[in-house]
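We store sequence, tokenised fold; for instance:
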Amino acid sequence: MLGGWRRTHTCGELRAAQVGQTVTLMGWAFRRRDHGGLIFVDLRDREGLTQCVFNPATSGEAHSTAQEVRSEFVLAVQGTVQRRPPGTENPKLPTGEVEVQVSRLKILNESKPLPFPLEEEAAVDEAVRLKYRYLDMRRPQVYRNFVIRDRICRAVRDYLHGQGFLEVETPFLTRSTPEGARDFLVPSRLSRGHFYALPQSPQLFKQLLMVGGFERYFQIVRCFRDEDLRKDRQPEFTQIDIETSFLDRDEFLPIVEGMLVEVFKRVGGIDLPAPFPRLAYDEAIARFGSDKPDLRYGLELSDCSDLFKAAEFQAFAQVVAAGGAVKGLRVPGGGGMSRKDLDDLTEAAKGFGAKGLVWVKVNPDALQSPVARFLEPVKAQLLSRLAAAPGDLLLLVGDRMPLAAMVLGRLRQEIAQRLNLVPPQEFRVCWVFDFPLVEWNEEERRWDAVHHPFT
């Protein structure tokens, strides 16, 4: 197929230092531009893009063949590296100072018209992308995801090997054991009527390794869980699996912190501050309304239950008397929100499970709220508790815990997005520990396992 052609450089490699050299490139025709006498083809491979020039004065045969080239044809070109004419350089490309004056061209493979453009900014329906996955993988942003994943895996392996860990592969065909989801079953050809189970995690195997004296084990391992498809669920996924012997929690957590610091630095050039903050589950729920709190912005929750024990506002007083809680959230400057915005937040709160949402605008001379008159007796304490100032918006939810906090936690996230409070390039990592094992399901009147990182 290549007919003796040998690639000498990638399409992202050429620089001014190679000017005058004869090179051979291979890749895909990303763009083709016919300027009458000259034809320009941007040749792309996984490393980058190089502009190739077809001049009939240099090679009439190559120029003639270039007229047949269309998007995503696979090409082999040979030519001389030259500087681009002054004023035509492309500073956005690493190869933008140079181009290749082509003397030979071979079309290795043709392409049918594409079902969607491969430009990075093109919006393409996901179903179409998946149908033509081999084309989708040529898009720069998709390829970058694979590169990032590869770099993460290398960084993890290098770090853990440096910490004395041994990488061990564990079996995929094993016995079924009770875990958090259903097993995928594989029928055995040799033992008719019997099945293997694909592992939901290597839990038993890594415990055997510890019993066997391996002490420090890790694996970047594929796991399989037969469960309903949801946004945060996948039938198969990859996890970094680690097990150690002779370490307690305070000795183990710094190892994981060091791994994440190394990954962020090597892959993203990001300095992740360590040690990470540590929050107990109850504290995370009380302050942020979430077991995975976003610490990149404020908007912390406050407990206002004691203010409403004997208050005139019976909706809250009854909640507190029944053992529930009243949680409050101050939105600085949120008093400018429209009634439609507040109605949307109220409907969102109901959608999250609350019976309703009390909103209060703090004006210089009074509180503005549908229940303002019921709040007058506790006005001073409420403003003090939430550190409120004129122009702020207060949101209150009264319900059983942890629902009251979690509803405000969801609203906290939504408001932060609306008000652009989330710094997009900032990372704040924390530990959340002491997760409860079970919680009471009010609707079904039974205990349920709490959703946590291991269920």
